[in-house]
Amino acid sequence: MKNLSIIEEFVLLGLSSDPDIQTVLFVLFLGIYLLTLMGNLMMILVIRSDSHLHTPMYFFLGHLSFLDMCYSSVTVPKMLQNFLSQKKTISVWGCITQSFFFILSGGAEGCLLSAMAYDRYAAICHPLLYTVVMNRPVCTAMVSAAWMTGFLNSLVNNHCIQSLKFCGPNIISHFSCELPSLFPLSCSDPMANTILLAGSTAFLGLVTLLLILFSYSKIMFAILSISSSGGRGKAFSTCSSHLTVVLLFYGTALFRYISPPSGSVLERVVSIQYGVITSLINPLIYSLKNQEVKAALQRTLRQQMYVSG
């Protein structure tokens, strides 16, 4: 990290410089963050406590909820602090650490979403082989591979930033430290780092997205063979909501990490979508709309009331 010692801290401009607007944004994002933590934590507790949900699908959903809590916690607490602070700075080490865990969480989430799509494909299109194909060791290996892929992708990109020299300016036109925002501040040529980040993001993003689209296309064809119109409608509604969340996550993340940084308001709005909003709506779309989860939640609440009574 000797090359990064020229500048000791960066200044995060955030979403607004107006104190009144910052107060409103603090309340808004604090509410979003607390709802994200409560929704995902509730999902984890319900899945762990109810034996009816000890299946591959909910095994993945539990890990997705934990990952979403981590993903949101990488950037939102620092953003909330800056809303109330006059000095909106972050150390160079803190900035690179935040970037490391942000890319790790994002890469792991993309891989986990593709694993979940494959799980639904196996369950719907090959129900007789489902318990054989998606056994516990396979599910554990898929989740471990998702975390490891995110870790390696983040490690490579954040390690290579050590070759850059930052000697000013130190103002980041964003509310968090992301590598696309750091590259324009480098005094040395960041072209190799930019190509590496765009290439690794495009490769990882497109491979996992294609796996998701393949799985859901097979699921759609299987749904079309359902004789009941009500069953088809319910299945299409579920799949369309899942795909909407996936496409919003992938579309905004790929746009942010592949396109040249501009420091525009659009970039910050896009980052809020994949870095904050996705973690909030995932438990709603994937789990809380699920009848099995609702039934498990009711059983858990009744059990807690019985124990406390």
Automatic annotation (TrEMBL):
Keywords: Cell membrane, G-protein coupled receptor, Membrane, Olfaction, Receptor, Sensory transduction, Transducer, Transmembrane, Transmembrane helix. It comes from Equus przewalskii. The chain crosses the membrane at residues 24-46, 58-76, 96-116, 191-214, 235-258, 270-288. It is a multi-pass membrane protein. The keyword Cell division does not apply. CDD domains: 7tmA_OR8S1-like. It is found in: Cell membrane; Membrane. Belongs to the G-protein coupled receptor 1 family. It holds the Pfam family 7tm_4. Residues 39-286 form the G-protein coupled receptors family 1 profile domain. Its main location: membrane. The gene is LOC103546823. Putative odorant or sperm cell receptor. SUPFAM superfamilies: Family A G protein-coupled receptor-like (SSF81321). Signal peptide: none annotated. This is Olfactory receptor.
